Amino acid sequence: MLSIHAHAQKAAEAAEAAGAQGAFWPYHDLLFENQARLGPADADAARQIFVELAESLDLDVDRFTRELDGGAHAERVTANRLEAEGLGLPGTPTILFEGQALFGESLPPTFFYWDAIVQLTLLADRQYDAPPPMTIDTDREIFATVTLASGEAFVIQLLPKSAPETVNSFVFLVNEGWFDGVTFHRVLPGFVAQTGDPTGTGFGGPGYVIPSEIDPDLTHAEPGTVAMANSGPDTNGSQWYITLGDASQLDGGYTIFGRVVEGLDVVSAITPRDLAQNPELPPGDRIEAITIETR
Description:
The protein is of the alpha+beta class. Helix content is 31%, strand content 17%. The chain contains nine helices and ten strands. The protein has an eight-stranded antiparallel sheet with strand order 5-6-8-7-9-4-3-10. Helix 1 packs parallel to helix 4 (43-56) and helix 1 packs across helix 5 (61-69). The radius of gyration is 28 Å and the shape is elongated.
């Protein structure tokens, strides 16, 4: 049933009458565009609005008014309303998500939030119960080659002596294919390019966290520094970033675990993307795959 204030029943009947002529959704949209007019209108004035909308769509107005005034669709609309009430659906829009009815203020306000909810739900199947066991050799040099969907690539030298748990987790996630297809969801020129979240929303992670590993000898001052994003101390998961300029204000709060040693120009050319300014942006530049080499 359409929720057009006090005229909901007749509005729904009008939409059904328009639907009988193949124009249900265009008429539906016009009804919602004219809610401000319908709200204060009495029954006669509302009927006139219903007819005007039918005329604007070039419908057969005689047929439309005959069906509307004669209640041709009243029984169908009433049956639908009673069925919806029986299912616990209070009105439109109502969306069923994982067996729960969402409506009114409980509905996510934009596509970005809907996408985040759906993506995070899907990500639940890929969560891990705990951080991986230590498998890397901290005495070896470890390099990660990041190949983008564009075919361009850059190389990160990982720093296992400074951040052994972080590098171990990163290598584990690489070998699990966690980063394959993941985008750079937050790219602020002159600051950082952030990735590591398969949902592309900035909310996703692997299901576990690892402690911060702060090496006071390392700094964010140079472009190409690779560090873990977090939401506070010891909340590191799978999201990481590369500095695009002097970001030394981040020193002491984020685990630095690598530096770009080849392809910094590729990193600098990653497409800017700021969800805080526009949450409806298209997906960011995509990582095709990451490979690990130990020397």
